[in-house]
Amino acid sequence: MSKKVEFRLSGAGGQGLILAGIILAEAALRDNKNAVQTQSYGPEARGGASKSEVIISDDDINYPKVRESDVLLALTQAACDKYMQNLKENGILIVDENVEVKDRDNIKIYRYPILRTASEIIGNKMVSNIVALGVIQGVTNIVSTDSLREAILERVPRGTEELNKKAFEEGFKLANN
Amino acid sequence: MDKKVKLMQGNEACVEGAIAAGMRFFAGYPITPSTEIAEISAQKLPRVGGKFIQMEDEIASMAAIIGASLTGLKSMTATSGPGFSLKQENIGYASIAEVPCVIVNVQRGGPSTGLPTSPAQGDVMQARWGTHGDHPIIALTPSSVRETFDLTIRSFNLSEKYRVPVILLLDEVIAHMREKIEIPNEDDIEIINREKPENDIGEYRPYETKGERLVPPMASYGEGYRFHVTGLIHDETGFPSNSPIVAEKLIKRLIDKIEVNKEDIISFEEYNLDDAEIAIVAFGSTARSAKSAIDMARDMGIKAGLFRPITIWPIADEEIDELSKKVKTIIVVEMNLGQYVYEVERIAGKNCNVIGFGRANGELITPDEILDKIKEV
Q: Where is the signal peptide (chain B) (predicted)?
């Protein structure tokens, strides 16, 4: 079987997780892989629960949703509580420092100040999603780092490139320290 | 990365396909999960000299695209569930007046406002019989982002060729998912335009057909041709008639123009059917789950395959009849509580066992659930 990795990026609406999923999938395409991104959200514009899923594979991807994820990012307690049980054995859980992780065997847990890095070091909590992408890349090395950098710059609003570049590097550093 | 390879959402691919097909008018009333189609049309149409208009409601949007099409513009609207219900009266008008147009319906959970952000395939029968009376219709349903691009073009081509409203049935999963798509070169895309009259302006009879061609050539308003368009039964001049002879001739021709051209209109995909004992019939996003389930079943030594209608109306009756003679069981998987299964049963029921597997809770049916059903059989 070829390599297939399933990501679930979860948190609150407005945290930019759908965009983070799109960027991750676009980085995978730059590496000549297949990727599918899906999302689910409530009727609210912001504030409710938000979830973005990405499947990256060398092969065709039929069923486009994620059942059990290999990697779970949870930026809020509610998201972590809800999706942790659907993390695979030996799966990777990446959470914000504010999230308490309940006991679960056979997973790898990475806890970083993702939201604080965005608001205090970068000075803009809007880039939490890009800090999170830096952390994900630092932990999983799922795509080539250059592809991910390019994908970020292509998608973020014009004029925010430097801010987002810095957000990515800070996130990447968190995971590599 | 090649510039033409992109990560694209189904709804976006629909607009890209529409513009490639020559869409130059869009009227709509935005509704989840079809909203991106209106948004992106509003952005892109002005750049190609087209027009976008947000109407006061869905039935007016449908009326607007009929009007635009009569002036010669390729026209489209997009909606979901409740909006599709509202459009039905004017879809009937487009059918009887033979006005080419494309109606995209991104299916969401129903009835009524139902589950606005969740997928469903509950409008299969409404696509066929939503408007009243005997009427011709074509409905296509894609399973991927790339196929959404291709089938949007094909919807325009078929509507132009047969002067019929074509319904593109998406579901929320296909409409909102993003995947890899390679946009073909313009030169590789086949475009069909409606046949224009060759008569002198004074001699044009708008609903006159010649020989075996059951589709009358179509003039555009503004070109100098004067003609009457009505939702009433009409004769070849386009004016209303109460004659049973005229009524029978018109309705029969409207139905026949699709019926006799079924071979051209119907398309489908077969996957692992050669030696299959169990065939799944599934379309749209459900077909993706079915493919995964079939791969899993094959790994276990179960001979399962997929018949995927791409044209769901008219139904591929000859192909399904053939299939029913080769397999022991057909399982129709759809995100509703049983619609297409009854059509399949009508065709295949005399030759093999036909069972339905459906659900209407707003969740995509998973490969495991389909595999369980296969194992049960």
A: none
